[in-house]
Amino acid sequence: MPPAPPSDPVHHPYFARFYARASTAAETRAGMGTLRRELLHGLSGRVIEIGAGNGLNFAHYPRAVSEVVAVEPERTLRRHAAAAALRAEVPVDLVPGVAEALPVKSEAFDGAVASLVLCTVRNLPRALAELHRVLRPEAELRFLEHGLAPGPGMAAVQRTLDRTVWPRLFGGCHTARDPLAAIEAAGFRIVSHRSFRLPERGPSLPTSYCVIGSARRSRD
Question: Is 193 in contact with 147 (CB distance < 8 Å)?
Fold first, then answer.
């Protein structure tokens, strides 16, 4: 008998189908399309995107980007991303892989994108160290993430959820991570950022506390 195909390093088929539907609806209802355009504005050259999901960023890359290498470990989401790549106005090379072990050469990219993915990686310091490795000195990391709430009450709720049901229900997501602190600890210099709540109105959710911004890779 032929050998069984290798299993994917990340496999959340039920969550992936839910995420594909919910994220598409959020493009207009929650204003995610506008945020994606803000995130990617001004990028150029070769860009690596980790955790590309179902490829909703692809439509918003500026034409100055010569190539996007999009890394997505989950098979169902990768299939959706492949369809989105065909519609993109910039070349997109979609590859399987995890953020903690990027299948690319060191100092090979002019920019990197982390969009709603740092909450799910299994080893956050390792994933950011890999981004640092593959970026050229002074290249830019763009990020759009949710994270730790500023108030102690919701932060305590987030930590409890992260220890119990939340990662199991939502594809490995952790709500209490601090993306800004983690990015700086990995050797990046924060250039700009703004914090906001999503949704802007109504009760806060564990994932409501978001940040968008950019950082530059140190020269070591």
Answer: no
